Amino acid sequence: MSEFNNKVRMGMVGGGQGAFIGAVHRAAASIDGEIELVCGAFSSSHENCLATGKALHINPERCYATYAEMFEKEAALPEEQRMQFVSVVTPNHLHFPVAKAAIEAGFHVMSDKPATFTLDEAIALKEVLDKHDVLYGLTHTYTGYPLVREARDRIAAGELGEITKVVAEYSQGWLSEPPGPDNKQASWRLDPKRAGVSCCMGDIGVHAANLAEFMSGLEITKLCADLQPVVAGREIDDDGNVLLRFSNGAKGVLIASQISVGEENNLNIRIYGTKAGIEWHQQEPNTLIMKYNDKPAQLIRTGVGSFHPVAAGSMRTPAGHPEGYLEAFANLYMDFARQVRAFKDDEASAKLSSKAPGIDEAIRGMAFIENCVAATRADQKWVDFKLENVL
Fold first, then answer.
1. What CA–CA distance (Å, rounded) separates 238 from 236?
2. Between the CA atoms of 250, 381, 366 and 245, what dihedral angle is there, to the nearest 10 degrees?
3. CA-to-CA distance for 259 and 175, rounded, in angstroms?
């Protein structure tokens, strides 16, 4: 392979025609020109897989009927041709078997969240990773936004003082009525056999929890939860409220809802400290607000002024040219591509300014989901945040 064609080579499991998130992953991975999609097992239907590959201009010989076939045949290709990592964009119940098979075949893995179907599977996945020399990344997308990264660094630098309160909300309205029979995205999310023990908290609440920990630098230690299905006939939650306690004693509130009529993708977070507060809204991602008691609030805009290095390196366009969801996704893929390039080079790896969320975040995310379900079922008010044996 020519030295001028040394893109990181990606395969994909899931994301065939009719799927939503696979197209998002592909678009994000391509933005910076560092990653090339070379193969896929895009669907359980080989016909759909071939049609998807044709639309994406992929060699039909590398559009596989199953992910097992893909891993076997890709591993047999010359090193300079085979895929280097696989993007897993299937429904939740397939995340673990696909990731496990990829790791055991020697491929790096970038997985959509939640990482697995259960916490036990996430723990088992870490055990598999410990036995194989490969990378694992998780697309907690919102950690890729430049101003989220800026907020994290400002908080770490002490600009807010001691953190005292965290308020995170993720509200949507798209499941406020029973979905039609052709709504593929709703059907599997509301099916406990494919989504797991939670719909709303597993789909979006876990993002808010991850964002709260990522930005604050704290960990959730206790919670009090109330999850429920609001729409009649559902087996798992479509709405939930959670009280939080953090590792430094700070208190928190997390709201997640998919039945909040009129809400689109209203993820927002406010973090308060003894010196200042900070606020960010996903639907206005290029604005960060710093708030004070003794002086006017500060409006921070992407691309205007100076930023911490990781945030600055995550920006692509001049001020006033909005960057959003795809670019945040792309930052995670860029981080992961750099990790793949630096793989087995300790010095190069140490120089990386940021890395994609990994297996530790995967385990904490699954633990958050199951702890919320356990807390809802519990008789006591507060439950400890446990990392194993939750349900």
1. 7
2. 0
3. 5
The answer for residues whose C-beta is within 8 angstroms of residue 165's C-beta and 6 or more apart is 250, 251, 252, 271, 272
Q: What is the pLDDT of residue 4?
A: 58
As given in the structure block, the two tokens for residue 146 are 């430049």
Tokens of 379: 């008789």
Residue owning tokens 């710093």: 290
**Do the Cβ atoms of 206 and 301 come closer than 8 Å?**
no
pTM of the complete model: 0.95
Confidence at residue 5, expressed as pLDDT on a 0 to 100 scale: 67
Torsion of CA 177, 182, 183, 185, to 10 degrees: 150
CA torsion, ordered 329, 333, 338, 342, to nearest 10 deg: 130
The single residue listed with the structure tokens 């911490």 is 308
Q: State the DSSP H helix or E strand holding residue 106, giving kind and residue range, or none if neither.
A: none
Give the residue ranges of the chain where pLDDT is below 50.
1-2
DSSP 46-68: HHHHHHHHHHTT--GGGB-SSHH
CB contact burial 347-380 (16+ within 10 A = b; e otherwise): eeeeeeebebbbbebbbbbbbbbbbbbbbbeeee
CA distances for 163 relative to 156, 227, 242, 244, angstroms: 10, 27, 19, 13
- In three-state secondary structure terms, 306 is coil
* Cα gap 234→40, rounded to integer Å: 34
Domains, in order of start, for the chain:
8-141 (3.40.50.720), 144-318+365-374 (3.30.360.10)
CB 148 within 8 A of CB 142: yes
Q: Identify the pLDDT of residue 182.
A: 80
Q: Which residues are CB-contacts of 6 (< 8 A; sequence separation ≥ 6)?
A: none
Distance (Å, whole) CA 87 – CA 191: 23
Terminal-residue alpha carbon distance, the chain: 50
Find how far residue 20's CA is from the centre of its chain: 15
pLDDT tens for each residue of 27-78: 999 999 999 999 999 999 999 999 999 999 999 999 999 999 999 999 999 9
Q: Which amino acid is at 153?
A: D
Q: Cα separation of 137 and 8, whole Å?
A: 15
Cis check for the bond before 114: say yes or no (omega within 30 of 0): yes
